[in-house]
């Protein structure tokens, strides 16, 4: 299944409290449950003013649909073509 990186511009994201992040996660999980098993949230990285999310989904439109239903921005959605890590150099 394709993997996507989603960039979400959220001013002050790095200052969100644990409770606020929990609520965002609960909203995302609820939307995912309604959408079915075809789309999966892998993990997210919170930076100063953005959240970068990794999702598995059959297509970009499903990722964008999740964002719309959850009320999340999806400023950029990019399909991952390959993954590299230090072992790639061997």
Radius of gyration: 14 Å
Q: How are helices and strands ordered from N to C?
A: EHEEHE
What overall form do the CA principal axes indicate?
globular
Q: Percentage of helical residues? A: 25-40%
Average the pLDDT over all residues and give the rounded result: 97
Q: Kindly, what is the distance between the CA atoms of the first and last residues, rounded to a whole number of angstroms? A: 26 Å
Would you identify the regions where 5 or more consecutive residues have pLDDT less than 50?
none
Q: How would a textbook summarize the main sheet?
A: 4 strands, antiparallel
SS content category = alpha+beta
Output the strand order for the largest sheet: 2-3-1-4
Number of helices: 2
Proportion in β-strands = 25-35%
Number of strands: 4
Please tell me about this protein's structure.
The chain has a 4-stranded antiparallel sheet, with helices on one face. The protein contains 2 helices and 4 strands; from the N terminus they run E-H-E-E-H-E. Helix 1 (18-35) crosses helix 2. The model has no long low-confidence stretch (mean pLDDT 97). It is of the alpha+beta class and 90 residues long.
């Amino acid at each position: 299944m394709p993997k996507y990186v989603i960039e979400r511009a959220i001013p002050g994201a790095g200052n969100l409290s644990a409770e606020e992040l929990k609520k965002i996660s609960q909203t995302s999980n609820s939307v995912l449950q309604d959408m079915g098993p075809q789309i999966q949230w892998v993990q997210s990285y919170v930076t100063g003013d953005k959240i970068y999310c990794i999702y598995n989904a059959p297509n970009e439109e499903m990722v964008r649909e999740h964002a719309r239903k959850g009320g999340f921005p999806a400023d950029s959605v990019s399909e991952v073509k390959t993954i590299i890590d230090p072992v790639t150099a061997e």
